[in-house]
Amino acid sequence: MVGLPPRKLFAERAQRLNKLGERVPAMAAYLQFMAMIVEAQHRVLQQPRPSLIGGAELAMTHGIPPLSVDGLWRDMSWPADLEALLDALDTRVEAPQRVWFDALRELPDADRADLARAVLEGQPLAIEQRAMAPLMGAALQVAWTRQARLLPATPPRPAGLGDNLCPCCGAPAVGSLIQIGMARSRVRYLQCGLCASEWYAERAKCVQCGDSRTLDYVSLEDEQGERVLPVQAETCDHCHSYLKRVNREWEADADPLADDLASLTLDMMIADRDLARRAFNPLLVLGEPA
Questions:
Q1: Is residue 221 a contact partner of residue 227, using CB atoms and an 8 Å limit?
Q2: pLDDT digits (tens, 9 = 90+) for 125-135
Q3: How far apart are the C-alpha atoms of 49 and 5, rounded to whole Å?
Q4: What is the pLDDT of residue 290?
Q5: What are the beta bridge partners of residue 177?
Q6: Which residues contact 205 (CB under 8 A, 6 or more apart)?
Q7: Residue 83 DSSP label
Q8: Which of 91, 117, 150 is a domain's end point?
């Protein structure tokens, strides 16, 4: 079971980020800034770009994700989408973000390509690159989401592809999502951090290693023990990793990427457990990966 990204993905994500900014005052400025970027993503997504899905059916026949990052990253429209994002945000970005914003606009094409590749591969970034990376990640998301929406059919899950990798593009998941609705109620899906496609994942099983015996769930709670956000960290002591899970049974508009940004306190809570964070969130840079 695979689902392609919805038409209003970025518009609804921006609404969620603004709502989360009101609920998490300590992160309000950051979440509102990210909402502004995501709103720009929605506008840029509407701009036409050349289709790259000509070989999609052949790729699916051979068990290859039709929008494979490794195969298409040089051909994708992310350079044009990055320019469009920079134009859309130019009058809205103020100090101190203006420094890195202008640096990204002036970055040579070759250096932009190096940054794009580093973001896609989750490579450690130089200090001067880290502030620029989320906007590059936003451009990459727009490019891949646009092409995913053009696919002629929902791709099957390629044999041998890791459970945590997207059937459409092969990128890792940003998190998992407990769905609602008659057809998918209480079913868990993973959502791609790049193209936002979703695919089925067994609920009580680590998507990284398949273990089900050592799973644990960590939540954010207030002083009264009440849940703060519809987010849990699913931890696995077998492969020593974790991935966040959002539950739409608790909040119908929960979004794996937006709620990941709003729940960084959860990452800090479990930082001393020496668990590798497995989420791929191109809008978030936490420093060098574990």
A1: yes
A2: 999 899 999 99
A3: 17
A4: 38
A5: 189, 246
A6: 211, 212, 215
A7: H
A8: 150
Same domain? 182 vs 256: yes
Whole-angstrom distance, CA of residue 62 vs CA of residue 161: 12
Q: What is the pTM of this model?
A: 0.95
Q: Between the CA of residue 63 and those of 168, 224, 225, what are the distances in Å?
A: 11, 50, 47
CATH code, domain carrying 66: 3.90.1670.10
Whether the pLDDT of residue 37 is over 90: the answer is: yes
159 CB contacts (<8 Å, ≥6 apart)?
A: 63
Distance CA 193, CA 187 (A): 19
Predicted pLDDT of residue 19? 98
Total domains, the chain: 2
Give residue-wise pLDDT tens across range 58-114: 999 888 999 999 999 999 999 999 999 999 999 999 999 999 999 999 999 999 999
Residue 163 lies in a domain: no
Q: Both 208 and 111 in a single domain?
A: no
Contact in structure between 207 and 164 (CB atoms under 8 Å): yes
Residues 77 and 143 reside in one and the same domain = yes
Residue 162 maps to a domain:
no
Residue 289 pLDDT greater than 50, yes or no = no
Same-domain status, 203 and 237: yes
- The amino acid occupying position 151 is L
Rounded Cα gap, residues 282 and 238, in angstroms: 26
Sign of the torsion formed by the C-alpha atoms of 87, 89, 91 and 96:
negative
